Amino acid sequence: MATDPTLPAAELARLRLAVSRLHRQMVQASSRLDLTFAQLSALARIEAHAPIRLVDLAARERVAAPSMIRTLAPLHADGLIAKEPDPQDRRSALISVTAHGRETIARIRLERSQLLAERAGQLTAEQRDALLAALPVLELLAEEPRGGGTAPTN
Amino acid sequence: MATDPTLPAAELARLRLAVSRLHRQMVQASSRLDLTFAQLSALARIEAHAPIRLVDLAARERVAAPSMIRTLAPLHADGLIAKEPDPQDRRSALISVTAHGRETIARIRLERSQLLAERAGQLTAEQRDALLAALPVLELLAEEPRGGGTAPTN
DNA sequence: GGAAGATAGTTAGCTTAGAACAACTAACGA
DNA sequence: TCGTTAGTTGTTCTAAGCTAACTATCTTCC
């Protein structure tokens, strides 16, 4: 039952609005005790691609290198990530998640999901299924259109 | 084919990550020429509930009154919203969207959807359907659990 | 082999978006 | 009258990003 071949602007607008509102509430719900969203995103990215160099990490997260350094500094100070010298290139450091970092990720996943979990708990089974089915699609949209394509205009 | 009665923390974590990354990219893609996300959200909310008082608007957007004033100030200055005195309460003003505001919303909807539209254009029909099906659920999640429930702890 | 340019990481300083609290005025209401 | 509420201003804070400029190392090329 494939509908329109393309998503109309109205639906995209609704999606953008929903995403930005959801994000705002997640920010509000997460007190300043823990990792920020940028840190969590970077941490997850490191976990997925370790060992990874800073430049590559910054590129994947679509930020400039200094921004990534600022993001990682507290993680490094708290021992959530480790840097090892790259044997191939003495300028580079290979970044990876420590055991402590992995524990923290797991713990935060539980804690942080509470706001969402409460609301998700009030969904019907059909709604939950719809959400689960759309999750990979959302992840796809959130990823970079790797390689090729038009150069980013900003 | 209802799966688990509850969404596991792992999926919620993925949802949070996807939402925050999507949001970041939408922010990056929208240059500072136009309305901010807070302004757009407020504008949409006004359009949906006009005429609405500032306090009520702030409550619905889950922000303090001064924050909403700051958000609305440029919209008011640019004539996107109008304030009329509340006949019942001379302290209050009833806020609504002007014709100019409505045009702006429509225009921005088109412009702003480009990033998302490009990526959505590469989805399969099944993926688009999944996204469309999940859209109302996302909007539900993004809304407040109106009335009752535990008081917000922050 | 060595100069010259490119690249990795870093620091310093700045900007923007978004929100908060405190404190005030004006109006309501009991 | 006196406490409460609506709107507002002043000030501050945090998260997240940026550019410019620097050092150290790598790479290329004459």
Give an overview of the whole structure.
2 copies of one chain form a homodimer. Chain A is mainly alpha-helical. Helices cover 60% and strands 11% of the residues of chain A. A 3-stranded antiparallel sheet of chain A has the order 1-3-2. In chain A, strand 2 and strand 3 form a beta hairpin. In chain A, helix 2 packs across helix 4 and helix 3 crosses helix 4. The longest helix of chain A is centred in the N-terminal third of the chain and has 21 residues. The C terminus of chain A is likely disordered. At the A-B interface, helix 1, helix 2, helix 5, helix 6 and helix 7 of A face helix 1, helix 2, helix 5, helix 6 and helix 7 of B. Chain A binds a DNA duplex (30 and 30 nucleotides) through helix 1, helix 4 and strand 3.
Task: Give the strand order of the largest sheet of chain A, numbering strands 1, 2, ... along the chain.
Answer: 1-3-2
Sheet with the most strands, sense and barrel status of chain A: 3 strands, antiparallel
Beta-strand content estimate of chain A: 5-15%
- How many individual helices of chain A? 7
Q: What structural class do you assign from the helix and strand content of chain A?
A: mainly alpha
The SSE order of chain A reads HHEHHEEHHH
Gap between N and C termini of chain A, in Å? 38 Å
Residue windows where pLDDT falls under 50 for at least 5 positions of chain A? 146-154
Number of strands of chain A: 3
The whole-angstrom Rg of chain A is: 18 Å
Largest interface (CB < 8 Å): A-B, 67 and 67 residues
What's the assembly state of these chains?
Answer: homodimer
Cα shape of chain A:
globular
What would the average pLDDT of chain A be, to the nearest integer? 85
Roughly how much helix do the residues of chain A carry, as a percent range? 55-70%
